[in-house]
Amino acid sequence: MADGDSSFRISPSASSSCSSGCRRSRRWSQVSRSWSESEREARVLVINTGGTIGMVYEDNVLTTEPHTFVGHLKKLPMLHDQAYAERTQLFAYHKDAGSTLVLPSVAPEASHDFLWRQDKRVVYTLLEYDPLLDSCNMTTDDWAKIAKDIKEHYEDYDGFVVLHGTDTMAYTASALSFMCEHQGKPVILTGSQVPISEMRSDGRDNLLGALLIAGHFVIPEVGLYFHHKLYRGNRVTKVDSGRFKAFLSPNLPPLINAEVNITVSWDMVWRPNTMHKFRVHTNLNRNVGLLRLFPGITSDTIRAFLQPPMQGIVLETYGTGNAPDKRPDLLEELRAATDRGVLIINCTQCLCGSVSESYATGKALLHCGVIPGGDMTPEAALAKLSYVLGKSELSIKQQKEILHENLRGEMTTVYSASKFSLRDSSFLCLVANAIGANRTEELEGVRDALVPVLACAAAKTGDLETLRSLQRMHGCQWRYGGPRGLGPSRCGFGSSNWLQWSKSSGSGKGSWSV
Question: Per-residue pLDDT tens for 117-128?
């Protein structure tokens, strides 16, 4: 692929911040390893929670077998370069020598042009849980353990891969996406449908792809890599138990397609809009659940499901978020629950599509205090409920407001076009259409040219709501300097509102970036 291909662009701010931060966090030992060798290495922590990828057959039944996974990997040349490890004294350099491996170098082929030009080795260390878990046995405590391990090792690695069973992988990916706050490094979940020790395993490609992405690309999201695609973690659902293409992201295209060429959709990557230090929120509320409507469901069933200690439910409704509007007994139970503080999110039972208010049957739920869930998957909505309810310092009103927000790219934000507003993303679309910008790079050019101007206008008038909206829509970080000195603080002549807000959002220094 040509050097100028937009699929392979990494913003200078993203790549430089990773490289400098990662170098400072390296733990050096007194061995004859050159600095240049370390410069050409990316470190990835692989957290092995269990799942099919590491299982073995015992009496014709798949079961977990501890302390064998590293041995299987060392037998696979595509996942470990023993000659390089010995030549560079890799095992003497790393503290966890017995569980540290290194990927082979990427050959200078056109299909791997970007990886080859980076000339970087991915060194990865395995952290194996004891006991290993079948994902069916995963609980919120296990999610918290994974999040804490990521936090504990965050400064020592460039990226993280979590090996996980496929049955509840979408739930864990969604939960981690909310638990990881101010994330700046990739966290990628993967696994397999067939154990990696078997001849026809998909685990080798899945693990290799996850490691290459975590080591080479600055994608500060929780993702799920499966069958040559990296999905946003809170957008996926398992759709097939018997095929290698087990996961689907019904309402958002993949972030990466790893086919003959590795194509990254950089414009879709979700980036933090603050400069706060990475942290994890592990206080998840367990009093949440999923309730699926079906024809003939009784009010007694709904009443029983909504009884204390239940604090939040995801209501899976028909079509575009519809429920029976000729059943006052059902609506009365939902209204009674929301009145006493139970948070209810409306999600569609359909695999694709979104909740809308086009039908009277959908508006009936809105009048009962039910929160529209947009195009969230049930897995993401449940994790979001648990996360928001876990912030017990917030009032019910504040929790409802947060549930309406797009926190981690888990839902598609719909902006009203009823009137012109600087906050209306459709304004940029109209400009792009007017000048005939159709290709991705042209649309990015329109955005990069106009968003700073809109931000400057908002900063000058102290319109913080517009600045927040531009941040949410376009992943902007408002800072002081920038190309040709263009930045909100300079254009806005230091508006007191802007200056106060910029400090709280982590925008107090550096350069303009979008």
Answer: 667 899 999 999
Provide the residue count of the chain: 514
State the Cα torsion 137-280-161-380 to the nearest 10°. Answer: 60
d(CA 89, CA 85): 6
Amino acid (1-letter code) at residue 116:
W
Number of domains in the chain: 3
DSSP letters spanning 493-513: T--HHHHHHHHHTT-SSS--B
Instruction: Let me know whether 302 and 384 are in one domain.
Output: yes
- In this predicted structure, the answer to whether residue 420 has a pLDDT above a threshold of 60 is no
Coil, helix or strand at residue 150: helix
Please tell me whether residues 121 and 49 are part of one structural domain.
yes
Average pLDDT, the chain: 83
Taking Cα atoms as reference points, which of 56, 99, 51 lies closest to residue 74? 99
The tally of CA atoms less than 13 A away on the side-chain side of residue 402 is: 20
* pLDDT at position 40: 85
Same domain, 440 and 332: no
In the predicted structure, residue 481 carries a pLDDT above the cut 60? no
| Residue type (1 letter), 380 | A
- Is residue 461 located within the same domain as residue 354? no
CB atoms within 10 A of CB 199: 5
Beta strands 279-280 and 288-292, pairing class = unpaired
In contact, 196 and 216? CB cutoff 8 Å: no
Do 377 and 326 fall within a single domain? yes
Known catalytic residues are 52, 166
Assess whether 249 and 362 both reside in one domain: no
Q: What are the tokens at 55? A: 């299982």
Pick from 44, 45, 43, 47: nearest CA to 130: 47
The token duo for 41 is: 């290495």
Residue with tokens 């079906």: 294
pTM of the model: 0.79
Cis peptide before 272 (omega within 30 of 0): no
Read off the tokens for 126: 């395995």
Distance between CA atoms of residues 164 and 191, nearest Å: 5
Two structure tokens written together for 73: 């990997």
**What domain range includes position 50?**
37-272
